[in-house]
Amino acid sequence: MFxxxxxxxxxxxxxxxxxxxxxxxxxxVAVHSTADSDAMHVRLAHESVCIGPPPATDSYLSIPDIxxxxxxxxxxxxxxxxxxxxxxxxxxxxxxxxxIVFIGPSSEHIRLMGDKITAKETMKNLGVPVVPGSDxxxxxxxxxxxxxxxxxxxxxVKATAGGGGRGMKLARSENELEQxxxxxxxxxxxxxxxxEVYIEKYLxxxxxxEFQIFGDGRGAAVHLGERDxxxxxxxxxxxxECPSPAISPDLRAEMGAVCARAVADIGYAGAGTIEFLYEDxxxxxxxxxxxxxxxxxxxxxxxxxxxxxxxxxVAAGEALSFTQEALVPLGHxxxxxxxxxxxxxxxxxxxxxxxxxxxxxxxxRMDSAIYSGYRIPPYYDSxxxxxxxxxxxxxxxxxxxSRALRELVVDGIDTTAPLHHALLEEEAVLSGDYDIHWLExxxxxxxxxx
Length: 450
Description:
This protein is α+β, with helices and mostly antiparallel strands.
């Protein structure tokens, strides 16, 4: 087992990893920019190293500075958290060149799943259902038109190297295809330096369902059920729950087995998430995230596992600590993301926190790195906390979430907590009858958001 781990991240996820390390008797190293010198993860780690100025490109994304921090402190391994360098194959290779272990999958698997077309083809060959669409990149408009006629409209044009909703354009008819094709390519070129796009059938009312998987890198893998992440704004998740109110136990077992078998077949190591669109009883693969997800706590609560601890164990060469048969779900969990944003248009709201009070009680968990007097810097993601609740069933979880939200106090800045209060008054949310378009429609009607 490792004696010292460096966390190449910040905020609540860095604190989450530090806590796991302490419970395993492992020393932790926090890295930080000058803007984060008073951050909670810096205060609670065994050691800390400043790696640069506020811009992420000069600090949290600086591979040489992170490796230097490892060498200065003697860290044997790096946990990347999520975001930043967590899915950067070049970072993994650089660590390997310096004899440092990356707590995550191999660079080969990160590259394989980082390219949307290659990932889709790989999963298709492994028996995972995929959305009808082009077999690869679409080189020109004429090819795009041919594919559109073959699979039928509406279609969505997506950047091969895309993410976070960038480089994605909808065409409801052939008349709209040219504009969608050209715009998606332009956005992809600007955002990713790669203008290759592909085309998929656009589903009208799908849900976003993702399966948590875990592999040992030696041909064994399990799944830990699914999370429903359909409540999204601009392709960014807002509200996540486990299990999905739309999936039957039989379908869960069937799809989970397909996912576990697929990652076992490629020898995948560590945590990963296979994401699907689900409509009318059918699943369609969209992408695989080769890292820990923001919403991993709902899976931890339902299955009573520590996914970060398991990541560290597997990276150290140990076998999985649980079998598929032992992974029995218990109850229902919901996570809501609390962002430092001002409604209705979700504009960033950095500033100094006055009073902060985290909710508590049975079945309530608040993953956050903020505190009273902490100044939220304007340079990074606006997520400041995740409120997670677990209860015996979904109605009880919704009631517990409502109670916990009423206890949450974050003064001095604007947050998205009012949105979650509003969601819990909506019949679609209470009944679980929503899709990936529902939230944006609701925001336009109720909040008049752009």
